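To: structure desk
From: M.T.
Subject: fold request, one chain
Message: Could you run this one when you get a chance? Sequence is below, nothing fancy, just the single chain.
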Amino acid sequence: MKKASVLLLLTLISFKAPCQKASNSNFDFIHQNIESSYLKDSVKIVISLPENYSNSKEKHPVVYILDGTWFFSQGVTSQIHFSRFKTTPNLIIVGIENSRRQREWYHRDTKKFNHFLEKELIPSINKEFRTTGERLLFGWEISGGFVVECLGATPNLFNGYLAASPGPLDKTFMEAYQYRFESIKTLVKSNKDFTSFFYFTTGKSDYPGQYGVDNIIDLLNENKLKNFKWTYKNLAKERHPTTAFKTIHDGIESYFLYYPVLRFSTIEEYISKGGREYLESYYKNRKEKYKFSKEKNTTDYLQSCKNIVFTAMSTKNFEAFDFNLKAFLPKNILRITPYQHACMFAEYYLKNNNTIMAMKLMLHYIDKFPEAARPYTVLGNIYKQMRDKKNAKKNYLKAIDLGTKNSDRRLSEYKNNLKQL
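Reply: Done. Structure tokens follow.
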């Protein structure tokens, strides 16, 4: 709670010095003023660096957040979440602060502001910090309209464009803004091979965000572009003032689609996405995009395989459990499966009267972890179900012996198994 309060305070305070740095135990916040020759104005920016930035040599993608006075803190909060759950690479967040007067940058002085981003701010960030060259731009409402204009005018300036309640986008609102729609139209019709990412949203009763959005959607639907990935979300539960928060979080997460370890909440979800074919394709794309080592990508792939097996078991779908575990055994799923989990798999096989697979698993893990007690008691349960009391007793005694030596928290369970034999 204390850290959250400090983060909010740092976001809201207005700094007057050219460059000030504040930090807590996890993150660095740097405040700077940039005197822009294009805007003829002083631009305040605030920068959040990833945790332990100063102790590594890693390079990071950058997320630029317009209306930073309002939304920089959301960018940082999302970065904390992404970092904790390894949903995205660690990110540098740059908030571009502005007064209400300075919001004219986003609809009256757009060309000047675009020059500021391209010629002054981005080079400055790249020079001062370790960046990968991959960057995203976010804006809301009027600044969201600028994001759309920036996409049309300079589609290669950013790798991803995120716009919440963007507007105005065309003459639906005012004839003067039709050029924004025309620039997107020219882009998609004249450059079929350009690569970019566009994520935009509107909310409930979203004035003025609804102006022109439908026309943009129709235009994009009419022109199928192989390398241009776009997503529109109608945030029916969000009103105009709150669309920004969800768009920042979900937009960034969507951009880094192939970064996290793949997990499924149900077997039906796994099957609906394409099953094994989807799983293989995901990790192939992931390795190509993020240049993960073969070892890391393979380990993460196996973690996804284990997730699928666990999901089948937890939803009591024995057919899917058995099919997928056997399918993943040749991929060496047991390499990343601790014996505790393997014991759960064996017990589930035993519950479904498959003593052969249960025994194969336990013999493998006893050979691999000869000092672990639990595999022996599960093996004892297998022999018990096979009505082989002699071998059941032998393995129960072994489990008790090892459990005593290791101060195993399940020791009472091992003793009780023997007692009930």
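Reply (cont.): The two ends are 53 Å apart (CA to CA). Let me know if you need anything else for the meeting.
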